[in-house]
């Protein structure tokens, strides 16, 4: 991953020996993680009949087992294709904290009340967003976790209620927020997202990556006349006798 950042604002421009030196202790860089998938074509699903018995150990004759490099292995169970998740962690601001607060506030402090295990997405069957635990020092919460596996899915945050951090935004304004740490176990290949099945490429669909579309163009045969011909002939008529002389009576009154 290559990231370019203009560090002009972090350099000294004083007229002394520090000119041109980087004066900032830290440089913040926003990294956006995205995922793209390519359409590999139109396939036909056939009933999957695995080669049994399943292997009990991953093959190592080609090196470390990697399905993305070596493809499908006969008799390999689904568990062989699932790699351990990669944990991404770091620090953030507390801008996501209001997403898990209930609609009630403490009448004494005016602070929002966090209800543990209250799903704030409104769709508890699919994903969970809410507070997991809280005390007088911090609130632990998760965003967009699988309702059936909250522990290892979603983005987990812990916001420290009594610890504040200050930083300057790009405009030089002072921004104050509660210290917040986060982590997420990233793994797009899980038993919930993939299956083992037999995919067969049909010959008539070779080279196609989308469903065939029929493009019909409507053409109206108007003979020797087009839609503007009558108007063009009218421009040549000076008298009523010209109507009979033009195109053997093509124009009539």
Give helix and strand order, one letter per element, not per position. EHEEEEEEHH
Query: The biggest beta sheet, please?
Result: 5 strands, antiparallel
Mean of all residue-level pLDDT scores: 77
Weakly predicted, low-confidence segments: none
- Overall 3D shape: extended
- Supply the helix-strand structural class: mainly beta
Q: How many helical elements? A: 3
The CA-CA distance between the termini, in Å, is 78 Å
Rounded to the nearest angstrom, the radius of gyration is 34 Å
Tally of DSSP β-strands: 7
Strand order of the largest sheet: 2-6-5-4-3
Task: Please outline what is shown here.
With 253 residues, this protein is mainly β. The protein has helices at 67-70, 229-234, 241-245, and strands at residues 44-46, 86-92, 127-134, 138-146, 155-168, 174-186, 198-200.
If you had to describe this structure to a student in words, what would you say it looks like?
- There is one protein chain.
- This protein is mainly beta and 253 residues long.
- Among the domains are: 82-196, no CATH class; 217-248, no CATH class.
- Helices cover 6% and strands 23% of the residues.
- The protein contains 3 helices and 7 strands; from the N terminus they run E-H-E-E-E-E-E-E-H-H.
- The protein has a 5-stranded antiparallel sheet, with no helix packed on it. A two-stranded antiparallel ribbon has the order 1-7.
List the helices and strands and how they pair.
Layout: E1 44-46, H1 67-70, E2 86-92, E3 127-134, E4 138-146, E5 155-168, E6 174-186, E7 198-200, H2 229-234, H3 241-245
Antiparallel strand pairs: 1-7, 2-6, 3-4, 4-5, 5-6
């Amino acid at each position: 991953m290559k990231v370019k950042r203009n560090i002009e604002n972090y350099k000294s421009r004083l007229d002394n020996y520090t000119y041109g030196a980087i004066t900032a202790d830290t440089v913040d860089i926003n990294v956006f993680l995205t995922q793209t998938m390519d359409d590999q074509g139109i396939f036909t699903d056939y009933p999957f009949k695995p080669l049994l018995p399943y292997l009990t150990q991953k093959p190592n004759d080609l090196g470390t087992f990697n399905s993305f490099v070596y493809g499908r292995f006969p008799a390999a169970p689904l568990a062989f294709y699932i790699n351990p998740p990669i944990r991404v962690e770091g620090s953030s601001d507390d801008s996501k904290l209001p997403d898990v607060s209930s609609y009630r506030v403490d009448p004494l402090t005016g602070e929002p009340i966090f209800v543990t295990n209250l799903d704030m997405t409104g769709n508890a069957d699919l994903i969970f967003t809410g507070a997991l635990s809280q005390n007088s020092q911090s609130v632990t919460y998760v965003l967009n976790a699988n309702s059936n596996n909250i522990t290892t899915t979603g983005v987990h945050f812990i916001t420290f209620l009594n610890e504040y951090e200050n930083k300057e935004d790009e405009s030089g304004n002072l921004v104050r927020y509660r210290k917040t740490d986060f982590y997420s176990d990233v793994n797009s290949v899980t038993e919930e997202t993939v299956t083992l099945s037999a995919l067969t490429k049909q010959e008539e669909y070779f080279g196609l990556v989308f469903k065939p579309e029929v493009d019909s163009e409507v053409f109206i045969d108007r003979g020797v006349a087009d839609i503007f011909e009558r108007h063009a002939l009218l421009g040549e008529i000076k008298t009523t006798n010209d109507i009979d002389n033009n195109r053997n009576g093509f124009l009539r009154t």
